[in-house]
Amino acid sequence: MRRLLIIAAIVAGTAAVAGVVVYGQMHMSLLTDRKASPIKTADRKPAPAFDRAALSGQPVDLRRFAGKPVGSNFFASWCAPCKQEAAGTARVARQFGSRVHMVAIAVDDKGPAAQRFASHYGWTWPVVNDPSDDLAYRYDVLGKPTTVILDQEGRIAWQHAGRIGTRPVTQVLDALL
């Protein structure tokens, strides 16, 4: 009898978790369609600086991006939500062109896999590998994907953990330009 109760509890718990996941997927528009706006200027904090080589070998010094907003995406090539938003990230980058700098940070990933991911989705901007999660830690990244937008002065203007549509990212970048 006790074994049957344990099995029933496990099945009920699994069903509850599955229900929450399905509900979340069905109602993702509640997250992606709401109006997004940058953090108030006075409340923005400086983004942690970094100077690393991209997977392509080119140097990526965040300080050199000053003067334009920076769209950054913390991702992993094996991450399903990262794959789901990757094409949209490429569309946003094409839409804003040279008005915005883009940089991607591969977290918990291998360099070659991250490079294949970026190439597959048409990412033409630098991809920095973060094998020790140092950058993820400094940016308070709690999961993948995480989108971080910096203002023209290198301050964090907006941050979103989890998959997101293009509309909120576009709204924040438009507000900064």
- Strand order of the main beta sheet, please? 5-4-3-6-7
Structural class: alpha/beta
Gyration radius over CA: 18 Å
Q: What percent strand?
A: 15-25%
Description:
The structure is a single chain. The protein is of the alpha/beta class and 177 residues long. Helix content is 41%, strand content 19%. The strands form two sheets. The chain has a five-stranded mixed beta sheet. The longest helix is centred in the N-terminal third of the chain and has 25 residues. The radius of gyration is 18 Å and the shape is globular. The N and C termini lie far apart (65 Å).
Short account of what is shown:
The chain is α/β, with parallel strands linked by helices and 177 residues long. Helix content is 41%, strand content 19%. Helix 3 (80-96) runs parallel beside helix 6 (166-176).
